[in-house]
Amino acid sequence: MLTEHPSVAQARIVKDHIAGLIARSDETDDLEVAMRYVMDNYCLTGAEREFGCGTTPVDLGTCSGEWFVPPQAEPGHHIVYIHGGGWFAGSVDTHRHLIDLIARRTGRAVFAPNYRLAPEHPFPAGLEDAARAYDYACSNGRAGPLAAASVALMGDSAGGNLSAALVIDIISRSARLPDALALLSGVVDFRPPDQMPPGSDDPTCEPTTQTRIAELYLQGVTTVDNPLVSPAAADSDVLERFPPTIIQASSDEYLRDQDVAFAAALWRLGVTVHLSIWPHLPHAFHLFPQELSAAGRAVDEIAAFLEGVEAVPADKLASVGAQND
């Protein structure tokens, strides 16, 4: 008798959970209500989450934030984590277990902002708060003012979009670039394809849904061609200045092809980039570390990437960037 590989069975259980949430959310025509319902319950599979970090809340004015500091954290080495949720859902609380895991596996303090959400606060409010959080983490630690030795920037889904857009914003204002960028199932191109990517099995998004999300997020302030909305639309002279970047996505998700294309664009421009496609997992699979063994391995891959980037002198990174894994 044929049996499923354990990893496939794990993924199927999580995908069924997500599909059930989306089916129940379809009972309302209000996309904002539906998305917030899905995001608030996305990780609630019944699994018991693990925590091990000390936390400290921070008030940044337009938004709040929180430090996650693991035992024996390496002083001065920070991560800024931007949570996902479709630009109008999610919070530090919905992602608390993942942020805590990233801090523990990397051995670094992580600062995560509760940025303002659409539609109450349309573009560019969330991006402005992400920038405020990043600038803060460059010059502060949990205990107060501190010039960070290194700062990595990362986010999942919509948070990945804001992270990549923030790099473009940082370049435009000649501020300090992050030492590394990690995109976890990140949205890098808001310009919707005509159809679902071949082979995708992703109930979280489709072209019509992405168009409706864009309308709620942008509200006519700008268009999806703006690189601060679609980082993949940025000019080459901007993209070539990106920091070393790791991009992770599932083979089954709607965003797969745009993440692959973005990694290829960075690679062609000489940016140090590591692309990894994880087979048959749900969108933002990192949020399920107790359910999916691949989630923990993906976080370990990010930790190894950060260590590898710091082990290579800055003037040597361009030559390393010719490798696309």
What does this structure look like?
With 325 residues, the chain is an alpha/beta fold. It has a single domain, classed as Rossmann fold (3-Layer(aba) Sandwich). Strand 7, helix 5 and strand 8 form a beta-alpha-beta unit.
Summary keywords:
two-stranded antiparallel ribbon, alpha/beta, single chain, globular, 10 helices, 10 strands, disordered C terminus
Mean pLDDT across all amino acids: 90
Please give the alpha-carbon distance between the first and last residues.
36 Å
Classify the secondary structure makeup into a structural class: alpha/beta
Largest sheet: 8 strands, mixed
Number of domains: 1
H-E string: HHEEEHEHEEEHEHHEHEHH
> What shape does the CA trace take?
globular
Q: Number of helix segments?
A: 10
Give the helix level as a range of percent. Answer: 25-40%
Number of DSSP strands? 10
CATH class: Alpha Beta
Q: What is the CATH superfamily label?
A: Alpha/Beta hydrolase fold, catalytic domain
In brief:
This is Alpha/beta hydrolase fold-3 domain-containing protein. Belongs to the 'GDXG' lipolytic enzyme family. By secondary structure, the protein is of the alpha/beta class.
